[in-house]
Design goal:
The chain is built from 10 helices and 2 strands, in the order αααααααβαβαα. By secondary structure, it is mainly α. It has a two-stranded antiparallel sheet with strand order 1-2. α1 runs antiparallel to α3, α1 packs across α10 and α4 packs antiparallel against α10. It is elongated and about 90 Å long. The relative contact order is 0.13.
């Protein structure tokens, strides 16, 4: 490789790693957001499922590692240090293989994940209690989900018939966040009174609520945004492959190791 091509490769790899450094910061921030978020569907999962907390810590670790790799890649490219470039190539390859494996696991275990999610939300709805301040954050998060997705329950409004408080009130109350009336949604109450209960009792079919379950709403959102999700995943994979190609190419064409180029602390 000529000296001109070597320089182009070196500085292109430097810019690539700068982007990789930014990507690591984004992943790190996303992991922290999952742990800190208290007002969305993520909060429902995070507070109910230990596996999501583990995933958040994994994201934080991956983000920090990605930032470190970006820094090492920049250092190895600019100073032409073969050992750093080789280490960088190896780490990228391991991360790419891990991402592919994780994607396959999620794909083949999606029914199991759906079942676990259904159990988590079902338990939340069954024990939903507006007067229980210990679970307020979790309940606020679920109310936010139902309001934003315009849905009710996980599979439908019938899920709320298992709620202990609604059972005690003969179903003459219904969750305000499920209501198809903006007046009820804006109310600070958790449960709204049914206007005209028949014989003092009612069923979910009498409630003025959304018919769609939140499971269908989430699946619809995923389908609508599938192109964006696949595009992001493909883009990340292409960037990683490009980084591997550039790093191994530069590493093979650096003929002599010069450790005097390494910055002194």
């Amino acid at each position: 490789m000529g000296s001109g091509c070597l320089k182009v490769t070196k500085y292109f790899l430097f810019l690539f790693n700068l982007l990789f450094l930014i990507l690591g910061a984004v992943i790190l921030g996303f992991g922290i957001w999952i742990l800190a978020d208290k007002t969305s569907f993520i909060a429902v999962l995070q507070m109910s499922s230990p596996s999501l907390k583990t995933a958040a810590y994994v994201l934080i670790g991956v983000g920090a590692l990605t930032m470190l790799m970006g820094f090492l890649g920049c250092l190895g490219a600019v100073n032409e240090i073969r050992c750093l470039l080789g280490l960088y190539f190896t780490c990228l390859m391991v991360i790419l293989i891990t991402q592919v494996a994780a994607g396959l696991v999620i794909y083949f275990q999606k029914e199991t994940l759906k079942e676990e999610l259904s159990h988590i939300v079902g338990s939340l709805i069954e024990n939903y209690d507006p007067w229980n301040n210990d679970e307020r954050n979790l309940q606020d998060a679920w109310d936010y989900v139902q309001t934003q997705i315009t849905c009710c329950g996980w599979t439908g409004a019938e899920d709320w018939e298992n709620n202990k408080i609604l059972i005690n009130h003969s179903m003459t109350l219904y969750p305000c966040s499920c209501s198809n009336s903006s007046k009820d949604v804006q109310a600070e109450r958790r449960f709204c009174n049914l206007d005209v209960p028949v014989n003092g009792t009612a069923t979910y079919a009498d409630w003025p609520v959304h018919e769609q379950g939140c499971m269908d709403g989430v699946e619809k959102w995923l389908k609508d945004n599938l192109g964006v999700i696949l595009g992001v995943c493909t883009g990340v994979a292409v960037i990683e492959l490009l980084g591997m190609i550039l790093s191994i190419s530069l590493c093979k064409n650096i003929h002599s190791e010069d450790y005097t180029k390494v910055p002194k602390s």
